[in-house]
Amino acid sequence: MVAARPLRAGRKMRDTFTRKYTDESTEDEYVFTFCCDICGKPYRASAVCRGNKKGLFRGREYRRALRAAWHEAELHFNRCPCCSAWVCDDDFDMSVGRCKACEDEGKKKGSERD
Ligand SMILES: [Zn+2]
Ligand SMILES: [Zn+2]
Question: Among 25, 33, 60, 64, which residue carries the largest CB count within 10 Å?
């Protein structure tokens, strides 16, 4: 087992995933956990078998595995169109179609105007 270490938002794939995700990959499989941008609640995607164990750890296969993991994980997150955060169902207001942070912000602004 490799200790989980948080990855900094990569420059290349910045706006595709949740801001925080962890790579818990082992020698045998790729494992990624994505965290809600608001509360940090993690969703762990199914492990993806590593085909080429001797190959580069961070190669094309790695990126493909990450994409596959996110493809599964994104079903458990909602993208806020206002702040483009990826948030869990608890932090997303379906009725207004944006995250709770933006919704709270909107309410605050609305009450200030009164
Ligand atoms: Zn959340
Ligand atoms: Zn938002």
Answer: 25
Please identify which residue in the block is written with the tokens 């790729």.
30
Q: Can you give the residue range of the structural domain that contains 105?
A: 14-113
Between the CA of 6 and the centroid of ligand 1 the distance, in Å, is: 18
The total of structural domains in the chain comes to: 1
Q: How far is CA 50 from the centre of its chain?
A: 21
91, part of any domain: yes
- Residue pair 31/25 in contact (Cβ under 8 Å)? The answer is yes
Q: How confident is the model at residue 113 (pLDDT cuts 50, 70, 90)?
A: low
Determine if the pTM surpasses 0.85. Answer: no
In a domain, 60, yes or no: yes
* Cα-to-centroid distance, 64 and ligand 2 (Å): 28
